Amino acid sequence: MNNYLAFNSNEPKYTYSSIGIYNPQLFNSHGKEISSVVSLLKKAMEIQLITGQLYEGK
Predict the structure, then answer these.
(1) For the CA atoms of 28, 32, 35, 40, what is the dihedral angle to 10 degrees?
(2) Could you tell me the CA-to-CA distances from 50 to 12, 33, 46, 58 in Å, in that order?
(3) Which of 16, 23, 24, 52 is disulfide-compatible with 6, CB 3.0–4.6 A?
C-alpha cells in the first residue's frame, strides 16, 4: 500500500478482512447473480479506484 492506495506490487501482501464501504456504482457492471467480489475488486485496483488502510492493532 502506498499512501493508502492499494495496487499490485512486490510490496508485502495483506488479506482483506472485515469492514468495507462500497460505492454502489462499483457494482453497476455486474448482474444480480451471486458471485465473488474478488475479481471486481482486482479490476478496481488496476485503475486505482480502491483505497485501504492497514490496521496493526494499536
Answers:
(1) 0
(2) 17, 23, 9, 24
(3) 52
Residues near 8 by beta carbon (within 8 Å), at least 6 away in sequence: 45, 46
Angstrom distance (rounded) from CA 27 to CA 40:
8
DSSP string of the chain?
-BTTB---SSSPP----S-----GGGGTTS-SS---SHHHHHHHHHTT--B-------
Query: Tens of pLDDT along 37-57?
Result: 888 888 888 888 887 788 888
Overall pTM surpassing 0.85 (yes/no): no
